[in-house]
């Protein structure tokens, strides 16, 4: 599935949240959405997820305007894992994941025959089979995060949009979570604050600052010390990882004038 983000702009009154952002994430690859607080990462993901309309530009899926597609069809193609998604309904983890199947049901085909198996597989993928019958409200932040990923997977999307999915996870779960996401082989856009996680798990990155693209391309080409200084105001050293095939970013401190 070909995803194209073409000159997307978002304005609210005088505020420019996104300014002519263009990128075409490589199909089946993981693209990191990076940048400091308030640079527009969540806004971009919500536009691509169809939750928010751009005020200019277009997002296309296989050439078709995403915002002109019907919601159900869009939801069968693309799943968005929002930053602080929550529910106060007394649902079990499995019932939460089952809501991901809603776009696959219709009046003509109310029974979702594969649904049960897809839900079980999604829970297993995120290591949450043991949480199946637990009440959502009783889960920890990291457990909720994994169950929400399972819900997104139950949608069987071609495009996966993840907004800071690792923010409640311990180190081991951050690594396994992103490894699994990579293994899914879906066209993935993932916003991350941790540059080392981005360096390790993303194929490409788009780096935003104040709503504009400041870097775009393969992670090892874009994540340079110069770019990090310019975008994050932090002095860093970028080196090859001694045992793995990706760079490591070591911070030396904030930029001093
Ligand atoms: N309704 C609004 N009116 C004006 N500005 C807004 C509005 N909503 C969001 N913004 C601003 O838009 C900018 C982009 O917000 P966004 O949530 O996309 O950033 P982000 O990169 O995801 O940030 P963070 O890393 O802190 O989560 C922020 O400066 C935010 O304050």
UniProtKB/TrEMBL annotation:
Coiled coil: none annotated. Signal peptide: none annotated. GO terms for molecular function: ATP binding; ATP hydrolysis activity. Residues 3-235 form the ABC transporter domain. Keywords: ATP-binding, Nucleotide-binding, Transport. Gene3D superfamilies: P-loop containing nucleotide triphosphate hydrolases. InterPro entries: AAA+_ATPase, ABC_transporter-like_ATP-bd, P-loop_NTPase. This is Iron complex transport system ATP-binding protein. It comes from Marihabitans asiaticum.
